[in-house]
Amino acid sequence: CQITSRPYSSKSAIRIESSDFAQGSLPVISFVRPDKLFTADTSIIRDVAGKLTPKSRNTILQHVRRLFTLD
Fold first, then answer.
1. Where are the alpha helices (DSSP H) in 1-71?
2. What is the distance of C-alpha 39 from the center of its chain?
3. pLDDT tens digit at each of 71 positions of the chain
């Protein structure tokens, strides 16, 4: 998912802040965009900013799964 510091008007954007991290953090409050999926080769990843708490990670994954649910 895309992570950005800009608060888009997307209803699917999920706010993440320092308390959502088990380790590390991002320098500013940010927003995960579950509706913006992409693949990234490991060669373009420069560093790991942190690790989300299980609760925060599960919340994001639930939103991603909803994108693929057929109703």
1. 54-67
2. 14
3. 889 998 777 788 999 999 999 999 999 999 999 988 889 899 998 898 999 999 999 999 999 999 888 76
